[in-house]
Amino acid sequence: MKNLGKILTLLILFLSSLNASVTASVTPNDVYAGDMTSYVLTISGSNVDKPVISDICGNTITATGSQTSIQSINGEYKKSYSLTYQFTPKESCTISAVGVMIDGKTEYSNSVSVNVLPRTQDLSADFVLEFETSAKELYVGEPFSITLLLKQKRGAQVVDSKFTAPAFKGFWIKSESKAQRTQDSEYLTTKIVYELAAQREGTHSIDAAELKIASRVGSNNWAGRLPQIRWRTYYSNQVDFRVKALPQNVKIIGDFTIKASVEKGEINPNEALNLKIEIKGSGNFEDIESFKPFVSDVNVFDEKIQLLKDSLSQKIVFVSEQDFIIPVFTLKYFDINTKEVKTIQTEPIEIKVKGNVSKKELSITRDEAIAPKIVETAKTVVVEKNNYLYLSLAFILGLAMGIVGMFLKSRNFSKKSKGFDIKDEKVLLIKLLPFKDRDQDVEALVKVLENNIYSKEKVPLDKKSLKAVFKKYDIS
């Protein structure tokens, strides 16, 4: 019996060598762009050296597989191998013959062609993708919505899936909704809504979205040549847009209202006053710039604009030692409803500062301080002598005060600044701002003070550096 087994094996090998061959095929031959296909080499022979294939028509091989079978045909035994290479062809091509070493001899396969079809939307397929848009002709910056529907026929089998959204080149993505799923008698539908806005004028397109579906198309058996899982790509429609420029060089489009409000109308000297600007409506809020104004003799600080879906807000801080007026804030935009350029604005706001002495009052005081006119000639000498006496006393008093001032400078830093409390960071900020642009140390101190005043996070102030700056610029 053992000898009979050896004889049978030798007979099989001998018959196989007589039928050595290599056959190439592609399944399927016709494939849509982006879909996967399989290149299959069927090899007959007993001693086979598997060929090394790194790519097919310049396309990367994404998966490989092999099967071996022995068949009896009319009493003859035939051994064969099936080598499978999966790839995604980018364009139609012809795969050249492949040489395979079989039983010490090189056998060549036939050449085979792959036909790549253009991407199309198949509305009758098991899976359907479709774009629906609220507008196809619009202005730069004009918001619009585009809805993507993913439909799956009930009963369609899915092993795995990969969705690729379009890049939306030339458009801003303002928002993307969560997926909403519904079903009817024929389809399971997934709905996603994108809020977009065009970036520039011209003709623009949103490319087709892609959905790759893996489904089971074969079974695991010795004679099977097809891969068990096959990927197919489904495409949506492409959407084209005509985008027009906004008139009069405006950058904002939509429908808006504007409002400015303050916490109070009267403050203490150097007290921070918060103003809030609110814009509500619809449009390209992201293109609206900061409203920070210039107000003479007033320090103004603007915070970052806060954006929501249908509103915008910004906080602006004013610090002053005297009365001032907050100017109007304006917004110029193209009204999407009336197709006209509009300008909306707030009202000016008067702010009173407690204990304020206006410049006008100061000038009057100086005028009143001028020495009285000399009317009578007889009194001229007396007045002039008195003036010399006053000047002498003033000089001596000024000299004494200077000596005292020099003495105080050498004392503790906190005592030097007796005109204000150095723990009052708002006052410190006012004192340092005039020197910010000329000194890096001052700039660093100003940043720390602004952070501590206008944010919740507190940073320790470098008192040594502060003392040095006050001494350097003789700040009091």
Detailed description of the structure:
The protein has helices at 2-18, 359-368, 380-409, 413-416, 425-432, 440-454, 463-473; strands spanning 21-27, 30-32, 37-44, 48-49, 55-56, 59-73, 76-87, 93-95, 99-102, 105-108, 112-117, 127-133, 137-139, 143-153, 160-164, 171-176, 180-183, 187-198, 202-206, 210-216, 229-235, 239-244, 253-262, 266-267, 273-283, 299-302, 306-307, 311-319, 324-326, 330-335, 340-345, 349-353. The protein is α+β, with helices and mostly antiparallel strands and 476 residues long. The strands form eight sheets. Strands 23, 25, 26, 27, 28, 30 and 31 form a seven-stranded mixed β-sheet that branches. A five-stranded antiparallel β-sheet has the order 1-3-7-6-5, covered by helices on one side. Strands 12, 14, 16, 17 and 18 form a five-stranded antiparallel β-sheet that branches. A hairpin with a 2-residue loop joins strand 6 and strand 7 (76-87). The chain is elongated, with a radius of gyration of 43 Å.
